[in-house]
């Protein structure tokens, strides 16, 4: 009787769990007709809400123009791209809870994060620096002892400072706008983030000339799009979209739109960075 009861319970659990396991991301997207991405609202020019209340940015264009067509091909039908806000503390929980299908923002691909999620090909490469008020004595990571340094919760920058530079007074904030606001109000001496994001904030500041981005990179930050771990078919579709964009040159057109001389934030791609991106696809 006990064995029979155990068997019934085992079958009940299996029937409860199996449908959730069977529905992979492509099946979920095919069923709903939409791919939901987690992205940023205040991280120009990667992803942000503009003055017309439109969600725009480099990573959103990459999804819409490169990834979406490959996902549509994989599911055999047109789909919509829906967006939800994600921040460093919330993006992995959003993925694992099935609230979003893809994180498309400014997420660094690290070995630690690969234990929880899978990453696409790298689509951007930068490194951590500091934003300070013009004239600040902080010129690099060597000058932060005893200084109040703002960072985002859950960021690789915060982790590095905590582990390698404990002499700094680390102050963590939930998102980029809150950290930058603390700098504007003089609550901290510097704000650390990936260099490209700091240049984006400076460009959008009320008085850009009041701020400097300083220091050599003290970390390497290859950005990838994150997805649920072990979903090989969905990862193949996302990677195919990025690979096709790199091979066709469409990726570089999108890059030029946002980072070229007439773009939202001029940030020329260096030859080493282009070589790094192309090496991923054997070019």
Helical content stands at: 40-55%
- In N-to-C order, the SSE pattern is HHEEEEHEHEEEEEHEHEHEEEHHH
Calculate Rg over CA atoms: 21 Å
Number of strands: 15
CATH secondary-structure class of the largest domain: Alpha Beta
Shape: globular
Mean pLDDT: 90
Structural class call reads: alpha/beta
Number of domains: 2
Q: What strand order characterises the main sheet? A: 11-10-12-9-13
Verbal overview:
The protein has 283 residues and is of the alpha/beta class. It folds into 2 domains: 16-125 and 223-279, 3-Layer(aba) Sandwich (D-Maltodextrin-Binding Protein, domain 2); 128-219, Periplasmic binding protein-like II (D-Maltodextrin-Binding Protein, domain 2, 3-Layer(aba) Sandwich). The protein contains 10 helices and 15 strands. It has helices at 2-22, 25-32, 58-75, 91-96, 156-164, 176-184, 195-204, 232-248, 250-259, 271-279, and strands at residues 34-39, 42-43, 47-49, 55-56, 80-85, 102-103, 117-119, 124-126, 128-133, 148-152, 169-173, 190-194, 211-214, 221-223, 226-228. The strands form 5 sheets. It has a 5-stranded mixed β-sheet with strand order 11-10-12-9-13, with helices on both faces. Strands 5-1-6 form a 3-stranded parallel β-sheet. A 3-stranded antiparallel β-sheet has the order 2-3-4. Helix 3 (58-75) packs across helix 8 (232-248). The radius of gyration is 21 Å and the shape is globular. The chain starts with a helix and ends with a helix.
Features:
single chain, 283 residues, alpha/beta, D-Maltodextrin-Binding Protein, domain 2, 2 domains, five-stranded mixed sheet, three-stranded parallel sheet, 10 helices, globular, disordered N terminus
